[in-house]
Amino acid sequence: AKLQEGWSSCPCCMLMEGSGFVPGQLDTTCHALVGETVVLPCSTSPPAELAKSMLYWQIGTRQVVHFFKNGQDSPEDQDKKFQGRTSLFPDQMKYGNFSLKLSNVQLGDDAEYSCIYKQTESHQTKKSTIKLNVSGK
Predict the structure, then answer these.
(1) Does a structural domain hold residue 114?
(2) pLDDT digits (tens, 9 = 90+) for 98-132
(3) Residue 77 — φ and ψ, nearest 5°?
(4) Who contacts 35 (Cβ-Cβ below 8 Å, separation ≥6)?
(5) Distances 70 to 35, 56, 82, 92, 128 between C-alpha atoms, Å
(6) I need a labelling partner for 29 at 20 to 30 A (CA). Which of 79, 98, 105, 116 fits?
């Protein structure tokens, strides 16, 4: 599909062919079908040091979708319904790519996701919000 001028080439990368996205009022809106894998985009300027930072992907203020701290994933802090279905791109994180891959998308995954990056020493925080719309097949 040809992208309209001004759109980045892949703000919402579907890993299945034939899927697309529609920009929304939030930072980005993604669309997925049940059972698909989707990448929720999140990027910032390259981090100073990943070992001294935290990255939260969450829904609302309490539901942790994925948590990365001190240079590694922290699955014990993750909501059980997301365990085994989320991953980051470790080789891309040093470049500021904090996108989240969500596998086996479920109807209950339809929500607004926040990507929150905090630097431990400087206390700088960056946040973006991505809406995921899930449809049944």
Answers:
(1) yes
(2) 999 999 999 999 999 999 998 877 777 888 999 99
(3) -95, 0
(4) 104, 105, 137
(5) 32, 12, 21, 16, 21
(6) 79
